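Work Package 4 report. The design task specified in the project plan requires that, given a folded chain encoded as structure tokens, an amino acid be chosen for each position. We show below one input record used in the internal validation round.
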């Protein structure tokens, strides 16, 4: 069985060695990059299954690198765990806004790191059933091909954005709580709390264009997808 490949982008050699040791003991293949430019090169060359990215990289920084990777079609689906010494809420939100899938604050335990990596890799598979094609208004979702169209134009979604849209379409007209979405898509208590659901819904709305108005916010509860009147 081919080992899952993880790219660590961090300029601290000691930390990189620690992360590499932990992950290799858990049977992952680990490669590393000491800066954003080299990180981008290695992502494009090796297509890792997951990226562990330091927020405080020299140069353009981890946040901007995360944005770049999430904007590019070929790399947008690669999950990213942000790694930082900061613990302020604003830094967590900044990571989520940039498209990060999880967030670990230094110092961290080796057990937590291994658990987070395992959980994120487990969640990259979408929640849709094979063979399903869901249609709502001008939105068409094909779960087999993992493709979404709006007015016959394909739009690029990250795995979590796809999962969110799938659940909203599958349970059209029903209110889905943030807690339900977290448990179904993220699968465990996320470090950023349900705030991350709001961030991903906002990103999804931006990509859906005019169809975004059908994702309604139910105050203090969650979201639902409604048909056009």
């Amino acid at each position: 069985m081919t080992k899952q490949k993880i790219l660590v982008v961090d300029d601290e050699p000691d930390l990189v060695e620690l992360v590499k040791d932990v992950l290799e003991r858990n049977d992952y293949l680990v490669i590393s990059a000491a800066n954003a430019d080299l990180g981008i090169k290695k992502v494009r060359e090796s297509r890792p299954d997951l990226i562990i990215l330091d927020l405080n990289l020299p140069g353009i920084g981890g946040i901007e690198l995360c944005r770049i990777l999430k904007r590019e079609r070929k790399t947008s689906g690669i999950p990213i765990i942000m790694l930082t010494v900061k613990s302020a809420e604003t830094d967590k939100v900044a990571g989520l806004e940039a498209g990060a899938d999880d967030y670990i604050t230094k110092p961290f335990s080796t057990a937590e790191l291994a658990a987070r990596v395992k959980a994120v890799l487990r969640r990259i598979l979408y929640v849709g059933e094979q063979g399903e094609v869901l249609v709502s208004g001008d939105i068409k979702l094909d779960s087999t091909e993992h493709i979404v169209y709006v007015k016959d134009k394909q739009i690029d979604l990250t795995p979590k954005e796809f999962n969110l849209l799938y659940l909203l379409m599958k349970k059209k007209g029903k209110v889905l709580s943030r807690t339900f979405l977290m448990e179904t898509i993220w699968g465990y208590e996320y470090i950023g709390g349900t705030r991350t659901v709001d961030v991903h819904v906002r990103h999804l709305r931006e990509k859906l264009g005019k169809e975004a108005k059908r994702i309604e916010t139910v105050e203090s509860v969650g979201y639902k997808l409604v048909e056009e009147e």
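The longest helix spans residues 110-123. Validation will be extended to a larger panel in the next phase.
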